[in-house]
Design a protein that fits this description.
The complex is a heterodimer. Chain A contains eight helices and twelve strands. By secondary structure, chain A is of the alpha/beta class. Chain A has one domain: 3-Layer(aba) Sandwich (Rossmann fold). In chain A, the strands form three sheets. Chain A has a six-stranded mixed β-sheet, sandwiched between helices. In chain A, a hairpin with a 2-residue loop joins strand 4 and strand 5. Helices cover about 15% and strands about 60% of the residues of chain B. In chain B, strands 2-1-5-7-9-11-13-15-17 form a nine-stranded mixed β-sheet, covered by helices on one side. The chains are: A alpha/beta, B mainly beta. Chains A and B meet through helix 2, strand 7, helix 3 and strand 8 of A and helix 1 and helix 2 of B.
Chain lengths: ~250, ~260
């Protein structure tokens, strides 16, 4: 059983407080969805958990399996099993997906890395995600459409097999068919490995495929309301202003 | 494939098919050697230079309608090379250079003399001492195209400089001028890029970019977020930066990269 606990986390960037006394705990086998209006700190949360040093922790703790990881470097966080599927994955010219993934797997598995099984797994995943099988030889996300980049994130997740999965707007840039593919692929991974999943989304449609146990609404840097999947449907129907307004009344 | 091997003071022409080559003295007084190449038909020319301690002038003339590729590799040695390229009508010249010398000073004079002539120049260098590259690109005829790409990684005692100037006179319409230079500076030393466009004509497309610095934080973060150490992430980025677009000397360049960043 793995767990990630966020305790009273306050974070600033460029002198502005983005997260305020944020609290959340996610455990293996749980799917949490964070929703909320733009600019409420949803993406910041995923980046801080991953260890982006652009964000300064003012107070609070990020605790992985009982250990505070506030000062752990980003690559070490990845090696203990935290994965961030990014909202806007960068394109890195010249560095092939193959070199990148091999290096990542070698960093994780050391001498246990098996090239043949890696090649087979990549072939299977590109097929499953309807990706160009030659993408592995292209630069990381180089010339990829928004949808291809998101699929590449999911491919990497499957290769690296994390136990804490953070997905930041993995649905943006995806057409209807790709959304279904990505959603089903995430659920296949979930059913197989039972990781803890924290996904950030604006839209209920992703939740047709990835079934969350908990929905949280964020505003002004912290969670203002939590509930089950019915909350997402209510948001879709009534909008954030109405629901958040009801809480404050 | 045509091959020119320069080792120390020796210049050897190992094959010449579709080109006329002559080796001589450009200046007895200044002790400058010269290699004159006339490209007569579509062909590739490989230049391999090692431990050179002579001054050398290249004269390369691509005749009308001919396509040529020049692949050049320099290692060790102190280089003072001057290149003069002359491109005639509808000719095409693609130049790929990989440099791993000690001190390098290069002057590249590119004359696009015939209409529709195209030159693509792609330099990759690992600078460890002093390297200075000057480019003068003259668009002397209409609808000519120049793409000058200079990439370098500056390490150890390196001081790297790219000076690129493109010229278009009034009345030379339809030209396309592109200059792109990037130096990854891994030292505290000063590196310089001077991109210049001297254009006296309105009907011209021109682009230039210059970048000196290290790799973008977001790129390093992305690689590290998959478990790769910072050192390995930088190695991967350097490898990608240098290998991009290199074809003929790709394996050689990989060996060079492994030598410095294993």
């Amino acid at each position: 059983m793995n767990s990630l606990k966020i305790e009273n986390l306050t974070v600033e960037v460029s002198g502005k407080i983005i997260l305020k006394d944020f609290n959340l705990e996610i455990k293996s086998g749980e799917i949490h969805a964070i929703m909320g209006p733009n600019g409420t700190g949803k993406s910041t949360l995923t980046k801080v958990i991953m260890g982006d040093t652009n964000y300064k922790i003012i107070k609070g703790k990020i605790i992985y399996n009982g250990k505070v990881i506030n000062k752990m470097p980003v690559n070490e966080r990845a090696k203990i099993g935290i994965f961030l599927g990014m909202q806007m994955p960068v394109a890195v010219e010249g560095v092939s997906n193959a070199d990148f993934l091999r290096s990542a797997l070698r960093a994780k598995e050391g001498d246990n890395f098996k090239l043949l099984s890696f090649i087979r797994e990549v072939e299977d995943l590109t097929k499953k995600l309807h990706m160009d099988k030659n993408m592995i030889h292209r630069g990381i996300n180089d010339g990829f459409s928004g949808g291809e980049r998101k699929k590449n994130e999911i491919l990497q997740m499957n290769i690296l097999k994390p136990n804490i999965v953070l997905l930041d707007e993995i649905d943006s840039g995806l057409d209807v068919d790709s959304l279904k593919l990505v959603g089903e692929s995430v659920m296949d991974y979930y059913n197989d490995k039972k990781p803890a999943i924290l996904l950030v989304t604006h839209y209920q449609r992703l939740l047709d495929y990835i079934k969350p146990d908990f929905i949280h609404i964020m505003k002004d840097g912290h969670i203002v309301l939590s509930g089950d999947k019915s909350l997402a449907l209510k948001i879709e129907k009534e909008g954030y202003d109405k629901i958040i307004g009801d809480i404050h009344e | 494939m045509n091959k020119i091997v320069i080792n120390g003071e020796d210049i050897k022409i190992e094959n010449s098919d579709g080109i006329e080559v002559s080796v001589g003295e450009a200046s007895k007084f200044l002790n400058v050697q010269s290699v004159k190449i006339k490209v007569l038909k579509d062909t590739d020319i490989v230049i391999w230079a090692s431990e050179v301690d002579i001054k050398l002038d290249f004269y390369i003339n691509v005749i009308s309608g001919v396509k040529a590729n020049i692949y050049e590799y320099k290692s060790k040695g102190d280089y003072k090379f001057q290149y003069k390229y002359y491109l005639e009508e509808n000719s095409y010249l693609n130049i790929e250079k990989v440099n791993d010398g000690n001190n390098i000073k290069e002057m590249n004079l590119i004359n696009l003399n015939g209409e529709n002539a195209v030159v693509n120049f792609n330099l990759k260098t690992i600078c460890k001492d002093i390297e200075k590259y000057n480019f003068l690109v003259y668009h002397n005829a209409k609808n000519t195209v120049s793409n000058i790409l200079n990439n370098g990684v500056n390490i150890l005692d390196g001081k790297l400089e790219f000076n690129v100037s493109g010229f278009v006179s009034n009345g030379i319409t339809g030209c396309d001028i592109n200059q792109k230079a990037r130096i990854i500076n891994m030292t505290e030393n000063i590196c310089v890029i001077k991109p210049n466009l001297f254009i006296d004509e309105e009907d011209v497309t021109a682009n230039h970019s210059a970048h000196i610095g290290t790799f973008a934080y977001d790129d390093v973060f992305y690689l590290m977020s998959r478990g790769i150490s910072k050192r390995e992430a930088l190695n991967l980025l350097i490898k990608g930066f240098l290998l991009k677009g290199v074809t003929y000397y790709r394996d050689v360049l990989e060996e060079v990269i492994n030598k410095y960043w294993r």
